[in-house]
Design a protein that fits this description.
This protein is an alpha/beta fold. The chain folds into two domains: about 270 residues, Metallo-beta-lactamase, Chain A (4-Layer Sandwich), CATH 3.60.15; about 170 residues, Rossmann fold (3-Layer(aba) Sandwich), CATH 3.40.50.10890. It has a seven-stranded mixed sheet. A seven-stranded mixed sheet has the order 7-8-9-10-11-20-21, covered by helices on one side. A six-stranded parallel sheet has the order 14-13-15-12-16-19. Strand 9 and strand 10 form a beta hairpin. Helix 4 runs antiparallel to helix 5. It is globular, with a radius of gyration of 21 Å. The structure holds zinc ion. Zinc ion binds next to loops.
């Protein structure tokens, strides 16, 4: 069996791993590159080694675009095989891929209108219509249900990262390989802990937090401090937020804090039709996470839902302190940009970053202390106060991951190829695991081919 590392290697985005036996070819994850321009350029280049007409299936660990966002590109190129994944992942992808297509179209139009592109008529990578059509390829399975693609046996198991997220175990030619997918935490507010792995001949392991530990500060206390400080300053709290997972966690936490009267009754707006739809999916899949039906109900009833553009624009009239949760999480697009354009120059504004900020994104630049931020082609002065909550990450840190491996049935000397990390994180994870475990740990190279 051969594995080619076609993306999500030496970086965090663009996850794609081609698995090939004598008779069968599957692609594990089909993610979009995000962040640095030199990485995003790869979205436009032909995918090496993959002939879409000879690909038997795409297996999808979870719905985040850096794992799923390239599916419509393969559809555009003629791929008509199945995309096999968990039921909840399909529902989330229907929302995320359509939105991704929509944003690509909007970007292309914007660049065309303002003549910001080298190209006469900039084209979107794919359209919303193309993304919708690619959803017709999805087939769903449950966790721990074994199925076959050609001579490959496949099982998805709970990875605890977001709703529907899975580690994928594949078995063929007498060997077993594990793809960790994005691995959650043992103590996540919303998700259950990741399931330990079975015995394997090779593990591809994510390393997002390979060189950082999560903040152990109580996230409820931290959030209540940020809300109270912003309210006392008479300002607005802007929370750029991932529509999937993080928005729901924040809504739930704000509901808990309000109920306990630890924060004032400020208006809270969820200005993201996508996050609103996702919250409904979390409510319907109450069996797949920690919240009860009653907790889901209060999560969904804390914020005022803003769907239309008109309602979103009307928020500019608000003069008293309020909270706006809007996408996107790494400030790369979405409605948060409009609010930032208006509110970043105001020193009473607080921006709260709650998730991982990939290098090259606006979020990462703000973390580095950017005093001006480029939004829609214009430079905006940034006088806002920046707060960061590291404690809400949907990824285990290197100690969480090490403990997850220790709970698993893995044998001494098992090879681990590290993926899905920035270079420092990959090196950190390698050094930590070499020091504390007896696995044979290495960093996977981009476009490397590994034979098991
Ligand atoms: Zn993810």
């Amino acid at each position: 069996m051969k594995i080619a590392f076609l993306g999500g290697s030496e970086t965090v985005t663009g996850s794609k791993f081609l698995v090939e036996t004598n008779t069968t070819r599957v692609l594990v994850d089909c993610g979009l590159y995000q962040g640095y321009k030199w990485l995003r350029r790869r979205n436009w280049q032909p995918l090496l080694l993959v002939d879409v007409h000879k690909l038997d299936a795409i297996l999808l660990t979870h719905a985040h675009l850096d794992h799923s966002g390239y599916i419509p590109v393969l559809y555009k190129q003629g791929y008509r095989g199945p995309v096999i994944t968990h039921r909840a992942t399909k529902e989330l992808c229907a929302i995320l891929l359509a939105d991704s297509g929509h944003l690509q179209e909007e970007d292309a139009n914007f660049y065309s209108k303002h003549k910001l592109s080298k190209h006469e008529r900039p084209e979107p990578l794919y359209t919303r219509a193309m993304a919708d059509k690619s959803m017709g390829l999805f087939e769903t399975v449950e966790y721990d249900e074994c199925f076959s693609v050609g001579d490959i046996k496949v099982t998805l198991q709970n990875a605890g990262h977001i709703l529907g997220a899975a580690s994928i175990i594949i078995e063929a030619e007498g060997k077993k390989i594990g793809f960790s997918g994005d691995v959650g935490r043992p103590d996540d507010v919303l998700m259950r802990p990741p399931k330990p792995l079975p015995e394997l001949d090779l593990l591809l392991l994510e390393s997002t937090y390979g060189n950082r530990r999560h903040d152990k500060t109580d996230p409820f206390q931290q959030l209540s401090d940020v809300v109270n400080n912003t309210a006392n300053a008479g300002g607005t709290l802007l929370i750029p937020c991932f529509a999937v997972g993080r928005s729901q966690t924040l809504q739930y936490m704000l509901a808990v804090l309000l109920k306990a009267k630890r924060i004032p009754q400020l208006p809270i707006y969820l200005d993201s039709p996508m996050a609103i739809d996702v919250s409904d999916i979390y409510r319907r899949y109450a069996n797949e996470h920690r919240l009860t039906h009653a907790q889901c109900y209060s999560m969904c009833n804390t914020a005022i839902y803003i769907r239309s553009v008109e309602e979103s624009k009307a928020l500019t009239e608000m003069r008293s302190p309020h909270i706006i949760i809007a996408g996107s999480g790494m400030v790369t697009g979405g409605r948060i940009l409009h609010h930032m354009k208006r509110l970043l120059p105001d020193h009473r504004t607080t921006v709260l970053l709650t998730g991982y900020q990939a290098g090259g994104t606006r979020g990462a630049k703000m973390l580095e202390g950017a005093e001006v931020v480029k939004i829609h082609g214009k430079w905006v002065t940034n006088n806002a106060r920046l707060e960061v909550m590291h404690g809400l990450s949907g990824h285990g840190d290197y100690i969480d991951i090490e403990q997850w491996l220790q709970q698993s049935s893995l044998h001494k000397g098992m090879p681990i190829q590290l993926i899905h990390g920035d270079p420092d994180a990959l090196e950190g994870m390698r050094d930590h695991l070499r020091c504390t475990t007896n696995f044979d740990v290495d960093i996977a190279g981009y476009q490397q081919i590994y034979t098991v």
